[in-house]
Amino acid sequence: MRNAPTILHLDMDAFYASVEQASKPSLRGKAVVVGGLGPRGVVATASYEARAFGVHSAMPMAQARRLAPNAAYLVPRFSLYRAVSEQVMTLLRELSPLVEPLSLDEAFVDLAASGAAEDAESARRTGLRLRADIRTVTGLTGSVGLAASKMLAKIASEQAKPDGLVLIEPGTERALLGPLPVRTLPGVGPATGDHLRRAGITTVEELAEAGEDELVRLLGKAHGQALYAMALARDERPVVAEREAKSVSVEDTYDVDIHDRLRIGLEVRRLADRCVRRLREAGLSGRTIVLKVRRYDFSTLTRSETLRGPTDDPAVVREAAERLLESVDTMGGVRLLGVGVSGLADYTQEDLFAQASSRAEPAPEEAVAEPVAVPREPVLPHWRAGQDVRHAEHGHGWVQGSGVGRVTVRFETPQSPPGRIRTFLVTDPALEPADPLPLVVTAPAP
């Protein structure tokens, strides 16, 4: 253990929901819930105003709607969340070369690795400056925990929420941990917590008093020894610089099972294109294409194909995903589809670019059936709550809701006052999807 609180844990406050509130002035101070909006959707993040009604992450969306019927329910906008996250991670990397992201909104930083902090006072100043910089750059708030270990820094940031800073002085760890519930410690989930409760252990102090031998008997050697060490505030895990991504993937869960094979194929192509866009945004390519299919009975199948070399060609990824789909029985219906790419590299193999076209051309001796034209109903635009749009006359806005051939849009930007609401036909040619606007506009340098 260190003798100074030089490990920092940052946790952005209700990140997705806070981004939505910062982006939409009319939702500031209101209950906001972000997640899948269909009957099978779950809550990704709830604003603190929504949490007051009992809404929390991973809750079924239907339950959230019962608890907070007047909240704003929005689809996630991951491209914006990733962009804001990168702004925050850039600020962290300016503090230290050792930054360990845990998710888009959470990371550990080793302040001693760069000399950014040497004692409690300098660590506190660094944490306060970081929070101020995050607010300036993104307009959002984050909570900071400072301690001599990763476990304690994370506990401190949880105690600091929302929009606060907690520093745990070395030597005070046992007194702080003692009265906390055992579920506070990493690795103690509901099952382990219930097992310990049945043994009469409900607090960290009781965990320490039970002794290592008793915990090993209750939980097994590895888990018991690890929990005993944590109960004594022992945590020697280093901050590990961010690891390279092992795969890039996208998936969608459908409100109603898809049975039409043609529709399933179109969804797979669309997912493949989204996956390639994420690959290219990250400057990556990959060799192995993976298809994920969850069927009507919740059985999940994965199929993969490894190419000769890495690619970021959408046609190649689409074709591979479609070939994989051919081996999957979807007769009973499909509730989830996903496409991923693994075996990542930061380059592409040029000869793969010809793969799609060469596969698409039939050999000369093959007989090709004449395509049969099938009349189809026109596909109406699908507007989702929270989606960015632009109107030729009214400018930038976001979808508040849609149905019965109408779409309701509120026209406002992150820098404007709450905007006006207007309703259009879903087919209005003046309305089109738009990219998210930055939360904070930086003044150009003189």
UniProtKB/TrEMBL annotation:
Family annotation (PROSITE patterns): UMUC (PS50173)
Cofactor info, note text: Binds 2 magnesium ions per subunit.
Annotated ranges, domain UmuC: 7-189
Nucleotidyltransferase found in the keyword field: yes
Catalytic residues as annotated in Swiss-Prot or TrEMBL: 106
Catalytic activity: DNA(n) + a 2'-deoxyribonucleoside 5'-triphosphate = DNA(n+1) + diphosphate
Site (Substrate discrimination): 16
PANTHER family referenced in this protein's UniProt entry, alphabetically: DNA POLYMERASE KAPPA, DNA REPAIR POLYMERASE UMUC / TRANSFERASE FAMILY MEMBER
Function: Poorly processive, error-prone DNA polymerase involved in untargeted mutagenesis. Copies undamaged DNA at stalled replication forks, which arise in vivo from mismatched or misaligned primer ends. These misaligned primers can be extended by PolIV. Exhibits no 3'-5' exonuclease (proofreading) activity. May be involved in translesional synthesis, in conjunction with the beta clamp from PolIII.
Similarity-based family: Belongs to the DNA polymerase type-Y family.
Record's protein name: DNA polymerase IV
Organism field: Streptomyces graminearus
